[in-house]
């Protein structure tokens, strides 16, 4: 079957015309069948979310206005009548009038300080004891019980703001909200409390679990969305469902129309394809016949002649010219290919040899030897003197310290003697290889020299600085215990001791970073009680927080107790650095430390209420000797190594340290992740 198309250009063109004419129609139809339904459903879901947001906003606005109305009524001067004998005249008229104005299923009550109804829009409740349950949160002047919302506000005397006369209560039946919900045969909306199973609105309930904040899905041939309510109706959910068949009715009608139209479109495409494929192939068939004759007879002097005046005629003229130049071109191309292949192999061989040299002298010697062999010129030399031949191979190397190029010398191979531009490019490529290898050798030597100098410096500092510092600390601690010193002298010696301790800590941090960068800091993993380590750190640093009146709270509800593989010393040092940073940059409030495990990862989140940092400055804090600029930072001593050292240690444990903040005065959250 497929052989018919392989052997005939006409059949290929016929198939191509059919494909070009009919396949886009099929693709469009497939798109409608496969994707339009999803897009319509997604659009419907978006419309449902928008409709839900609008209804939720209206309901919440209505309830908020009721809350403001209760607060407004409680502050009216007329409420002073609660202590008068004629309370039932003015306050009762006010509550009754408000009830009539609302026109809703609600009740307004005024309670005295003994929780007895002294005025109400419903006369049957007068002088009845009333049980008023108040929320523990003083900011919430409302509560919901079953399907009734209770909004209350204290009544204070207008003549004495400190004197409480009673409480104003609004009993609101939540079924009043049904007026804001949609009531249609193909749309269903209701609000529901999943804890009390109280439902307001459409009595057709969907069998769904209300767990997420918001969600959309298909259930029982309905497209359903729900959203959790906030504010007064917090904990309730708004549920909105649309019949899928109604949403997709237009799509199904359009698909049926397209299917009915398909046979007519296919027939028209086939007719046009047959006509045009025959017209296009006829000149090509003539050209093919003449070409076969030339191939069979090997007569390259033959010419082609076509009766057409279109592109095939120009093809005939071009083919005749091609026959005349083919033989010459093939011979020249064969020679060029051999030359290029030879040069390419030589270039690879030179590169492999030069890259193995270990010194600048070896590199130059090997390169000169190769150049003599390739150019057949035995007088080629290398010289460090100023270049006397402008067209010779000049060598330059990089000065990495000053980021400049330096003249190194030249090789006395005169490139102007080569007429072929490709030959000159070949030798310039060798020159570039030599310079790159020289840069590589010099860079390796420079790096090794810097590493040796750094190691020597760290070794000397370890011996020369820590030993006298320990002596200073010891003498200072001894002098502090000397009783004959005055308070001023005691303070001075204490400053000496604390400054020496600070300097010793800074030196130890620098040595730790140097060990890590040199690959000499070893990780000793063992079975470790992670919670115990974190608790010890909190206990150790808690006095620092208490000195600043800060709280330190440890949360480990998401921590799975057990023994885990890690390095306890490195873990403790990381947490100490992060927690001490949080205490240092927090003036009020406190620090929360949350410990959690998930699969093979330990997470330690340290959140403070401190000064915070701009998000764009966070990345720079993980660089050595870097601190954020600010008033608070200037007050605090530090080396700028804490976060950098913590991150390096975390990487040794197979983890990382991150820092997050929303800006100045927004606090920070430092998070440690390690593999356990």
Q: What features would you describe in this structure?
A:
The strands form five sheets. Strands 6, 7, 8, 9, 10 and 11 form a six-stranded antiparallel beta sheet that branches. The chain is built from 14 helices and 21 strands. Helix 2 runs antiparallel to helix 5, helix 6 (311-354) crosses helix 8 and helix 9 runs antiparallel to helix 10. Residues 630-637 have low confidence and may be disordered. It is flat. Helix content is 51%, strand content 20%. Among the domains are: 75-178, Beta-Lactamase; 355-447, no CATH class; 480-513; 524-675, Heat Shock Protein 90.
Q: Tell me, what is the CATH class of the domain at 524-675?
A: Alpha Beta
Which of globular, elongated, flat, extended, rod-shaped describes the shape?
Answer: flat
Mean of residue pLDDT values: 79
Which structural category fits the helices and strands? alpha+beta
Summed up, the helix count is 14
Q: What percent of residues adopt helix (DSSP H or I)?
A: 40-55%
Question: Which regions are unreliable across 5 or more consecutive residues at pLDDT < 50?
Answer: 630-637
Radius of gyration, in Å, reads 44 Å
Q: Beta-strand level of the residues, as a percent range?
A: 15-25%
Q: How many angstroms does the end-to-end distance come to?
A: 62 Å
CATH-defined superfamily of the domain at 524-675: Histidine kinase-like ATPase, C-terminal domain
CATH architecture of the domain at 524-675, by name, is: 2-Layer Sandwich
Please tally the β strands and state the result: 21
Largest sheet: 6 strands, antiparallel
According to CATH, the fold-level topology of the domain at 524-675 is: Heat Shock Protein 90
